[in-house]
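User: Predict the full complex structure for these chains.
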Amino acid sequence: MFELTRLTTAAADFTQRLDQLLAWESVADARVQQVVDTIIADVRCNGDVALCDYTARFDGWTPENAAALELPQSRWTAALAAIPADQRTALETAAARIRAYAEHQRLASWAYTDTDGTLLGQQVTPLDRVGLYVPGGKAAYPSSVLMNAIPAKVAGVAELIMVVPTPNGEVNSLVLAAAAIAGIDRAFAIGGAQAIAALAYGTERVPAVDKIVGPGNSYVATAKRAVFGQVGIDMIAGPSEILIICDGQTNPDWIAMDLFSQAEHDEDAQALLIAWDDNYLDQVAASIERLLPQMERRSIIEPALQRRGGFILARDLDEAISIANHIAAEHLELSVDNPQAVAARIRHAGAIFMGRHTPEALGDYCAGANHVLPTSRTARFSSPLGVYDFQKRSSLIMASPNSAAQLAPIASVLARGEGLTAHAQSAEYRG
Amino acid sequence: MFELTRLTTAAADFTQRLDQLLAWESVADARVQQVVDTIIADVRCNGDVALCDYTARFDGWTPENAAALELPQSRWTAALAAIPADQRTALETAAARIRAYAEHQRLASWAYTDTDGTLLGQQVTPLDRVGLYVPGGKAAYPSSVLMNAIPAKVAGVAELIMVVPTPNGEVNSLVLAAAAIAGIDRAFAIGGAQAIAALAYGTERVPAVDKIVGPGNSYVATAKRAVFGQVGIDMIAGPSEILIICDGQTNPDWIAMDLFSQAEHDEDAQALLIAWDDNYLDQVAASIERLLPQMERRSIIEPALQRRGGFILARDLDEAISIANHIAAEHLELSVDNPQAVAARIRHAGAIFMGRHTPEALGDYCAGANHVLPTSRTARFSSPLGVYDFQKRSSLIMASPNSAAQLAPIASVLARGEGLTAHAQSAEYRG
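Assistant: Here is the predicted structure of the two-chain assembly.
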């Protein structure tokens, strides 16, 4: 019989065993690092020639010239026109919902004038140009194109550049259709560390961007880390995770399927369930046992659940909440009565799915909130991808002659206390 | 005669020469990295014993026991009571202004229910516990304690832990007084990579935090990079910079002193002036020539100006603005008529100081906006330190049975398009 790890909070070593189950250290691979460093140096030095070369070597097709690296807009328009109507409608509906949610996140500039007459404020501006990495091949997710691109466009980013590898010259038509719907400005058929280098430093053909977002394999992630500082990057994501808190009143088949939906991503994905009724955990275990053999992606789900899945038996809801705050899960389902009251007590989670009718899968695709979320307990200090990731703030300060006279003596005393006398004199001139 | 680099936009190689002047690559030092890795591993393994050991080795005093690493609150209170009245008033006034500005930044949670009945929102929560690194010795800046600590407390961070090395057991009393005013919760007399390791992983005595902020030397910066992911970190700052746009109507002595105030930080600091009147640049050069010999920190100011300082002669204000947007300076002074109209055209800058009566020094100490700002052109994609760095957001999603029935078919089509059939079935159960 298939057996998930079971932990009980009553055990003396519970916290230790939980932390072992959660543990994830992304191993920095020295060989990958070396390859990536070489590729970045090559692209910085040789530009488009290097891009064509790596594309021939890694993607299995040889661009005729640098112009052939660009996917013209006509390709996306054609892809959008060619996909089945139900897929087009689904993409468009999801895009509209993601856009509506993003509109709520947009920050506005503000300013105030204090009683002395000093104007203080914050001017909010979009990034000029953003690069979006989209993986090619089997892990090509059109939903990720929507989730990464739409907040950038809502922020007002003037130019959004997509890069997507096209193994053997083939490009996923759903990805292109999603790019058309999301409002991508230009697209290039490049991938891997070479695409990240091109976006960070620019080539003759590929314009340099200010920030790079989007998921990728270990070469892409290592390259993003390497160019950070030259450009901004989003998070380097760890494996995906779900934590479900259930009061035992939800159909156990539903919970089993929610756990599967996480586990089917890859063998490192983590699916956890907390309940305070041992009998309910048995029911979910029975559902897993029965449903697993029917799952198309069983060969991924089963090892994922075996390696990193788990059932946690808590004393009660209060203890379940406390454990959820420790875990700080990427996805947290509250499959309970009155989920809003429980959500208000959650301090750390990427996204909170409330109630029995809100499986993570709805949020992954079309509820509207972003599916790019902090993993590996980083929800303790970071947030979902959003419009704010594509806006930045400049402080605004304007003293009047009167307020400068008020502020100068204070600045002078503090500057002299720090031994910075040019600062002091600069202030005193206006005093 | 003292000569600054002069560039003119009329020169064919202007952009190239400007980029050479701006260029700054922080060199990753392999030896520092190795030392830091060893220290982090040691602190993770040996906790307080390692902290006492490194303190004895690097800071020149031997803690009697682990308890001696903590600076009790009575020390800060005593320091605050002991400093001169004008310094105390200046610190308290600055703190009140920094707090007032920060209050404007606090994000609030929001939620809305769409026409289908799906609730969507964003729950904003503070970080639980934050570590603040404060350098010891000569670069001990009480103003930095205020600038880093106050936004965290305004955000609602429950526990703020300060670490500060105390070379030979000596601690800067202004730093302790600032800690008392800023509302630090606990403080430890530790520094270097060992302090960063202790904050990231915790020891018996030092609690593990969720994010580490504050400036430090190359060991501290390298350690922060190494623990990123385990905890959040603020930016790794490059050398400080100022860019002044002046219409030639400001007293040239004032502009010279503003350039000095940047250059006195360290020899890598960058001070640039753009004008469109060659004669005015000559006047500022004459002011520099005359004032420089009187400056206490001449030995730092002079090499900084010589190595990385510069005058830029533009054609007009429009071109000056365009150059400023390319440079994306940490500090931008607009010493011009109608500075607000100019500020509205600035897309990239850390902080904008508007008008002839607003030198950077006022903002560094007491205007209210934060002095922790993006350097080295990173204002293209990042923002001043603020309350938002100590808050995070969890997405909220709650479908009703009705809205789940609307959303499920969309999610199902998209999930099947991506080959994720457990996602599809999880959605369909609620359809």
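The first helix of chain B runs from residue 14 to 22.
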